[in-house]
Amino acid sequence: MSISKSKKHPIVGNILAELQGEDWKRIRSITSPVFTSGKMRKMYPLVRQSVEGFMNTLSEYLKHKQVIDVKEMYACLTMDVIANCAFATKTNAFKDPNNAFVVNGRDVLKVSKGKDNINDESDRHESYHNNECEEELKMANKILNIKPSNKFITEDEMIAQGFVVFIAGYETASTTLSFCSYELALNPDVQQKLYEEVMSSLDTNGEIDYEVLTKLPFLDAVIAETLRLHSPIVKIGNIAAQDYRLGSTGITVQKGQTVEIPIYAIHHSEEYYPNPEMFIPDRFLPVNRHKIIPYTYLPFSAGPRNCIGMSLPEVRKQKFP
Ligand code: HEM
User: Quick check: 183 and 190 in contact, CB under 8 A?
Assistant: First the structure.
Protein backbone atom coordinates (compact mmCIF):
# COMPACT_ATOMS: atom_id res chain seq x y z
CA MET A 1 0.00 0.00 0.00
CA SER A 2 1.37 3.46 -0.84
CA ILE A 3 0.05 6.93 -0.33
CA SER A 4 -0.43 9.64 -2.89
CA LYS A 5 -2.10 13.03 -2.51
CA SER A 6 -4.96 13.15 -5.00
CA LYS A 7 -7.08 15.94 -6.54
CA LYS A 8 -9.80 17.56 -4.45
CA HIS A 9 -13.07 15.69 -3.92
CA PRO A 10 -15.75 17.13 -1.54
CA ILE A 11 -15.26 14.31 0.99
CA VAL A 12 -12.14 12.39 -0.07
CA GLY A 13 -10.31 15.66 -0.80
CA ASN A 14 -11.01 16.82 2.76
CA ILE A 15 -9.52 13.87 4.60
CA LEU A 16 -6.50 14.83 6.64
CA ALA A 17 -3.99 12.89 4.55
CA GLU A 18 -5.12 14.82 1.45
CA LEU A 19 -5.00 18.35 2.87
CA GLN A 20 -2.18 20.87 2.55
CA GLY A 21 -1.13 24.10 4.24
CA GLU A 22 -3.48 26.01 6.54
CA ASP A 23 -6.41 23.60 6.02
CA TRP A 24 -4.20 20.67 7.04
CA LYS A 25 -2.97 22.53 10.17
CA ARG A 26 -6.52 23.43 11.19
CA ILE A 27 -7.93 19.91 10.74
CA ARG A 28 -4.86 18.19 12.20
CA SER A 29 -5.03 20.30 15.38
CA ILE A 30 -8.72 19.40 15.74
CA THR A 31 -8.45 15.67 15.00
CA SER A 32 -5.17 14.71 16.65
CA PRO A 33 -6.47 14.98 20.28
CA VAL A 34 -8.67 11.94 19.52
CA PHE A 35 -5.78 9.68 20.51
CA THR A 36 -4.57 11.19 23.79
CA SER A 37 -3.76 8.60 26.44
CA GLY A 38 -6.82 9.78 28.38
CA LYS A 39 -9.08 9.06 25.40
CA MET A 40 -7.32 5.78 24.71
CA ARG A 41 -7.97 4.71 28.31
CA LYS A 42 -11.67 5.46 27.85
CA MET A 43 -11.73 3.51 24.58
CA TYR A 44 -10.07 0.49 26.16
CA PRO A 45 -13.30 -1.10 27.57
CA LEU A 46 -14.86 -0.75 24.10
CA VAL A 47 -11.88 -2.42 22.46
CA ARG A 48 -12.12 -5.18 25.04
CA GLN A 49 -15.79 -5.75 24.21
CA SER A 50 -14.83 -6.31 20.58
CA VAL A 51 -11.93 -8.58 21.59
CA GLU A 52 -14.31 -10.65 23.73
CA GLY A 53 -16.56 -11.18 20.71
CA PHE A 54 -13.49 -12.14 18.72
CA MET A 55 -12.30 -14.64 21.37
CA ASN A 56 -15.77 -16.21 21.68
CA THR A 57 -15.93 -16.73 17.93
CA LEU A 58 -12.45 -18.27 17.94
CA SER A 59 -13.51 -20.66 20.74
CA GLU A 60 -16.50 -21.76 18.66
CA TYR A 61 -14.25 -22.48 15.68
CA LEU A 62 -11.90 -24.39 17.96
CA LYS A 63 -14.73 -26.47 19.42
CA HIS A 64 -15.75 -27.60 15.94
CA LYS A 65 -12.14 -27.84 14.76
CA GLN A 66 -12.96 -25.50 11.88
CA VAL A 67 -10.31 -23.92 9.67
CA ILE A 68 -10.31 -20.13 10.02
CA ASP A 69 -9.36 -17.32 7.68
CA VAL A 70 -7.15 -15.25 9.98
CA LYS A 71 -7.16 -12.10 7.82
CA GLU A 72 -10.94 -12.22 7.63
CA MET A 73 -11.24 -12.63 11.41
CA TYR A 74 -8.98 -9.66 12.05
CA ALA A 75 -10.86 -7.61 9.45
CA CYS A 76 -14.04 -8.28 11.46
CA LEU A 77 -12.28 -7.40 14.72
CA THR A 78 -10.91 -4.15 13.31
CA MET A 79 -14.27 -3.24 11.82
CA ASP A 80 -15.96 -3.94 15.16
CA VAL A 81 -13.42 -1.80 17.08
CA ILE A 82 -13.78 1.10 14.62
CA ALA A 83 -17.59 0.89 14.74
CA ASN A 84 -17.57 0.67 18.52
CA CYS A 85 -15.00 3.40 19.27
CA ALA A 86 -15.52 5.86 16.45
CA PHE A 87 -19.20 5.45 15.56
CA ALA A 88 -20.75 4.22 18.84
CA THR A 89 -22.37 1.26 17.11
CA LYS A 90 -22.06 -2.51 17.36
CA THR A 91 -21.57 -4.54 14.18
CA ASN A 92 -21.43 -8.09 15.50
CA ALA A 93 -19.17 -8.47 12.47
CA PHE A 94 -17.98 -11.99 13.45
CA LYS A 95 -21.45 -13.49 13.30
CA ASP A 96 -23.15 -11.17 10.85
CA PRO A 97 -21.06 -10.44 7.77
CA ASN A 98 -24.15 -8.86 6.18
CA ASN A 99 -24.41 -6.16 8.81
CA ALA A 100 -24.99 -2.85 6.96
CA PHE A 101 -22.03 -1.14 8.63
CA VAL A 102 -19.68 -3.97 7.65
CA VAL A 103 -20.93 -4.24 4.05
CA ASN A 104 -20.91 -0.48 3.41
CA GLY A 105 -17.64 0.04 5.24
CA ARG A 106 -15.92 -2.47 2.98
CA ASP A 107 -17.59 -1.03 -0.14
CA VAL A 108 -16.39 2.45 0.72
CA LEU A 109 -12.86 1.17 0.88
CA LYS A 110 -13.13 -0.55 -2.50
CA VAL A 111 -14.47 2.64 -4.12
CA SER A 112 -11.80 4.88 -2.62
CA LYS A 113 -9.04 2.56 -3.78
CA GLY A 114 -10.38 2.18 -7.29
CA LYS A 115 -11.48 5.70 -8.14
CA ASP A 116 -9.19 8.10 -6.42
CA ASN A 117 -5.99 6.17 -6.05
CA ILE A 118 -6.04 6.71 -2.32
CA ASN A 119 -4.80 3.35 -1.31
CA ASP A 120 -4.20 4.58 2.09
CA GLU A 121 -5.14 6.57 4.87
CA SER A 122 -7.53 7.55 6.29
CA ASP A 123 -3.70 14.07 20.75
CA ARG A 124 -1.72 16.02 20.14
CA HIS A 125 1.45 14.27 19.02
CA GLU A 126 1.48 12.13 22.05
CA SER A 127 3.93 10.00 20.30
CA TYR A 128 5.75 6.94 21.50
CA HIS A 129 7.40 6.77 18.15
CA ASN A 130 10.84 5.41 17.75
CA ASN A 131 12.25 8.46 16.07
CA GLU A 132 10.13 11.14 17.58
CA CYS A 133 12.88 13.23 19.13
CA GLU A 134 12.29 16.33 21.25
CA GLU A 135 13.30 18.70 18.47
CA GLU A 136 10.81 17.15 16.11
CA LEU A 137 7.99 17.37 18.62
CA LYS A 138 8.77 21.04 19.24
CA MET A 139 8.66 21.66 15.51
CA ALA A 140 5.30 19.91 15.22
CA ASN A 141 3.97 21.97 18.14
CA LYS A 142 5.11 25.16 16.47
CA ILE A 143 3.51 24.21 13.18
CA LEU A 144 0.22 23.29 14.79
CA ASN A 145 0.05 26.30 17.03
CA ILE A 146 -2.96 27.83 15.29
CA LYS A 147 -5.15 30.68 16.53
CA PRO A 148 -8.28 29.62 18.52
CA SER A 149 -10.41 31.58 16.00
CA ASN A 150 -9.17 29.17 13.32
CA LYS A 151 -10.44 26.15 15.24
CA PHE A 152 -13.50 25.40 13.15
CA ILE A 153 -14.55 22.49 10.98
CA THR A 154 -17.18 22.34 8.22
CA GLU A 155 -19.73 19.55 7.88
CA ASP A 156 -18.00 18.06 4.81
CA GLU A 157 -14.69 18.14 6.66
CA MET A 158 -16.25 16.41 9.64
CA ILE A 159 -17.71 13.66 7.44
CA ALA A 160 -14.33 13.32 5.75
CA GLN A 161 -12.56 12.74 9.10
CA GLY A 162 -15.11 10.01 9.93
CA PHE A 163 -14.39 8.44 6.56
CA VAL A 164 -10.63 8.63 7.17
CA VAL A 165 -10.95 6.24 10.10
CA PHE A 166 -11.92 3.50 7.63
CA ILE A 167 -9.40 4.12 4.96
CA ALA A 168 -6.60 4.81 7.42
CA GLY A 169 -7.31 2.35 10.18
CA TYR A 170 -9.14 -0.66 8.81
CA GLU A 171 -6.72 -2.24 6.34
CA THR A 172 -3.54 -1.15 8.13
CA ALA A 173 -4.52 -2.50 11.55
CA SER A 174 -6.03 -5.80 10.30
CA THR A 175 -3.00 -6.44 8.08
CA THR A 176 -0.66 -5.82 11.02
CA LEU A 177 -2.57 -8.23 13.27
CA SER A 178 -2.61 -10.90 10.52
CA PHE A 179 1.15 -10.67 9.95
CA CYS A 180 1.75 -10.69 13.69
CA SER A 181 -0.16 -14.00 14.01
CA TYR A 182 1.68 -15.37 10.98
CA GLU A 183 5.07 -14.58 12.53
CA LEU A 184 4.04 -15.99 15.91
CA ALA A 185 3.01 -19.23 14.18
CA LEU A 186 6.39 -19.43 12.42
CA ASN A 187 8.31 -18.57 15.60
CA PRO A 188 6.92 -20.67 18.47
CA ASP A 189 9.71 -19.55 20.83
CA VAL A 190 8.61 -15.92 20.38
CA GLN A 191 5.00 -16.97 20.84
CA GLN A 192 5.82 -18.74 24.11
CA LYS A 193 7.76 -15.75 25.47
CA LEU A 194 4.92 -13.42 24.58
CA TYR A 195 2.35 -15.77 26.11
CA GLU A 196 4.34 -15.84 29.37
CA GLU A 197 4.64 -12.06 29.49
CA VAL A 198 0.91 -11.59 28.91
CA MET A 199 -0.11 -14.30 31.41
CA SER A 200 2.14 -12.84 34.10
CA SER A 201 0.46 -9.47 33.72
CA LEU A 202 -3.12 -10.66 34.37
CA ASP A 203 -4.82 -9.32 37.48
CA THR A 204 -6.84 -11.43 39.95
CA ASN A 205 -9.88 -11.27 37.64
CA GLY A 206 -7.82 -12.63 34.77
CA GLU A 207 -7.83 -9.24 33.03
CA ILE A 208 -5.10 -6.82 31.93
CA ASP A 209 -5.24 -3.29 33.17
CA TYR A 210 -4.75 -0.63 30.47
CA GLU A 211 -1.71 0.83 32.25
CA VAL A 212 -0.10 -2.60 32.48
CA LEU A 213 -0.89 -3.47 28.86
CA THR A 214 0.78 -0.34 27.53
CA LYS A 215 4.01 -1.16 29.35
CA LEU A 216 4.64 -4.77 28.29
CA PRO A 217 8.08 -4.58 26.64
CA PHE A 218 7.95 -7.83 24.71
CA LEU A 219 4.44 -7.26 23.36
CA ASP A 220 5.61 -3.85 22.27
CA ALA A 221 8.68 -5.36 20.61
CA VAL A 222 6.62 -8.02 18.79
CA ILE A 223 4.29 -5.39 17.33
CA ALA A 224 7.17 -3.08 16.43
CA GLU A 225 9.01 -5.89 14.64
CA THR A 226 5.83 -6.91 12.79
CA LEU A 227 5.46 -3.32 11.60
CA ARG A 228 9.10 -3.25 10.51
CA LEU A 229 9.02 -6.49 8.56
CA HIS A 230 5.49 -6.13 7.18
CA SER A 231 4.88 -2.40 7.15
CA PRO A 232 1.36 -1.92 5.71
CA ILE A 233 2.44 1.37 4.10
CA VAL A 234 5.37 0.56 1.83
CA LYS A 235 6.22 4.11 0.77
CA ILE A 236 4.96 7.62 1.28
CA GLY A 237 5.19 10.71 -0.89
CA ASN A 238 5.04 14.12 0.75
CA ILE A 239 4.93 17.44 -1.10
CA ALA A 240 7.38 20.18 -0.08
CA ALA A 241 5.50 23.26 1.18
CA GLN A 242 8.54 25.47 0.50
CA ASP A 243 12.06 25.28 -0.94
CA TYR A 244 14.22 23.34 1.51
CA ARG A 245 17.99 22.90 1.54
CA LEU A 246 19.08 19.48 2.73
CA GLY A 247 21.93 20.36 5.07
CA SER A 248 25.34 20.39 3.40
CA THR A 249 24.36 17.97 0.61
CA GLY A 250 23.97 20.78 -1.94
CA ILE A 251 20.47 19.47 -2.71
CA THR A 252 17.48 21.80 -2.53
CA VAL A 253 14.03 20.29 -2.58
CA GLN A 254 11.85 22.67 -4.57
CA LYS A 255 8.45 23.82 -3.36
CA GLY A 256 5.78 21.53 -4.82
CA GLN A 257 8.20 18.65 -5.37
CA THR A 258 7.15 15.23 -4.07
CA VAL A 259 9.66 13.51 -1.82
CA GLU A 260 9.16 9.76 -1.68
CA ILE A 261 10.30 7.81 1.36
CA PRO A 262 10.71 4.08 0.63
CA ILE A 263 9.64 2.72 4.02
CA TYR A 264 9.72 -0.94 2.99
CA ALA A 265 13.22 -0.68 1.49
CA ILE A 266 14.57 1.12 4.58
CA HIS A 267 13.04 -1.47 6.92
CA HIS A 268 14.57 -4.30 4.87
CA SER A 269 18.03 -2.80 4.53
CA GLU A 270 20.91 -4.89 5.89
CA GLU A 271 22.64 -1.59 6.66
CA TYR A 272 20.11 -0.73 9.36
CA TYR A 273 18.75 -4.12 10.38
CA PRO A 274 21.10 -7.14 10.53
CA ASN A 275 19.31 -10.20 9.06
CA PRO A 276 16.53 -7.93 7.85
CA GLU A 277 14.29 -10.74 6.58
CA MET A 278 14.21 -12.42 9.99
CA PHE A 279 11.56 -11.78 12.62
CA ILE A 280 13.61 -10.68 15.65
CA PRO A 281 11.47 -8.73 18.15
CA ASP A 282 14.45 -8.40 20.51
CA ARG A 283 15.71 -5.58 18.27
CA PHE A 284 13.00 -3.42 19.83
CA LEU A 285 13.51 -4.36 23.47
CA PRO A 286 14.46 -1.40 25.69
CA VAL A 287 18.06 -2.67 25.98
CA ASN A 288 18.53 -2.66 22.19
CA ARG A 289 16.53 0.35 21.07
CA HIS A 290 19.44 2.76 21.16
CA LYS A 291 20.99 0.77 18.28
CA ILE A 292 18.17 1.80 15.94
CA ILE A 293 19.28 4.75 13.86
CA PRO A 294 16.80 7.64 13.92
CA TYR A 295 14.47 7.75 10.91
CA THR A 296 15.15 4.14 9.88
CA TYR A 297 11.98 2.89 11.58
CA LEU A 298 9.04 4.56 9.88
CA PRO A 299 5.86 2.44 9.90
CA PHE A 300 3.90 5.54 10.94
CA SER A 301 6.14 7.99 9.06
CA ALA A 302 7.75 10.77 11.13
CA GLY A 303 7.49 14.50 11.65
CA PRO A 304 4.38 16.66 11.76
CA ARG A 305 2.61 14.57 9.07
CA ASN A 306 3.04 11.30 10.87
CA CYS A 307 0.14 8.98 11.63
CA ILE A 308 -2.34 10.40 14.15
CA GLY A 309 -3.72 6.92 14.87
CA MET A 310 -0.45 5.26 15.78
CA SER A 311 -1.19 4.94 19.47
CA LEU A 312 -4.20 2.74 18.62
CA PRO A 313 -2.32 -0.16 16.99
CA GLU A 314 0.96 0.54 18.71
CA VAL A 315 0.15 0.53 22.39
CA ARG A 316 3.55 1.22 23.81
CA LYS A 317 4.14 3.90 26.42
CA GLN A 318 7.91 3.83 26.59
CA LYS A 319 9.75 6.54 24.70
CA PHE A 320 12.46 5.63 22.27
CA PRO A 321 15.66 7.68 22.22
C1 HEM B 1 -0.92 -0.27 11.83
C2 HEM B 1 -1.71 0.75 11.60
C3 HEM B 1 -1.31 2.02 10.89
C4 HEM B 1 -0.21 2.31 10.12
C5 HEM B 1 0.97 1.39 9.79
C6 HEM B 1 -0.33 3.69 9.68
C7 HEM B 1 0.61 4.36 8.91
C8 HEM B 1 0.54 5.69 8.53
C9 HEM B 1 1.55 6.42 7.77
C10 HEM B 1 2.86 5.83 7.25
C11 HEM B 1 1.12 7.70 7.61
C12 HEM B 1 1.86 8.85 6.90
C13 HEM B 1 1.33 9.11 5.57
C14 HEM B 1 2.05 10.24 4.81
O15 HEM B 1 3.02 10.82 5.29
O16 HEM B 1 1.62 10.51 3.70
C17 HEM B 1 -0.18 7.79 8.26
C18 HEM B 1 -0.94 8.93 8.29
C19 HEM B 1 -2.20 8.98 8.85
N20 HEM B 1 -2.82 8.01 9.60
FE21 HEM B 1 -2.13 6.13 9.95
N22 HEM B 1 -1.52 4.20 10.16
C23 HEM B 1 -2.14 3.22 10.92
C24 HEM B 1 -3.34 3.33 11.60
C25 HEM B 1 -4.12 4.46 11.63
C26 HEM B 1 -5.37 4.59 12.35
C27 HEM B 1 -6.00 3.50 13.22
C28 HEM B 1 -5.83 5.86 12.11
C29 HEM B 1 -7.07 6.55 12.58
C30 HEM B 1 -8.08 5.98 13.11
C31 HEM B 1 -4.87 6.52 11.24
C32 HEM B 1 -5.00 7.81 10.77
C33 HEM B 1 -4.06 8.47 9.99
C34 HEM B 1 -4.24 9.82 9.46
C35 HEM B 1 -5.47 10.69 9.64
C36 HEM B 1 -3.07 10.14 8.75
C37 HEM B 1 -2.77 11.44 7.99
C38 HEM B 1 -2.02 12.39 8.90
C39 HEM B 1 -1.70 13.73 8.24
O40 HEM B 1 -1.60 13.80 7.02
O41 HEM B 1 -1.56 14.72 9.00
N42 HEM B 1 -3.84 5.64 10.97
N43 HEM B 1 -0.50 6.56 8.81
Answer: yes
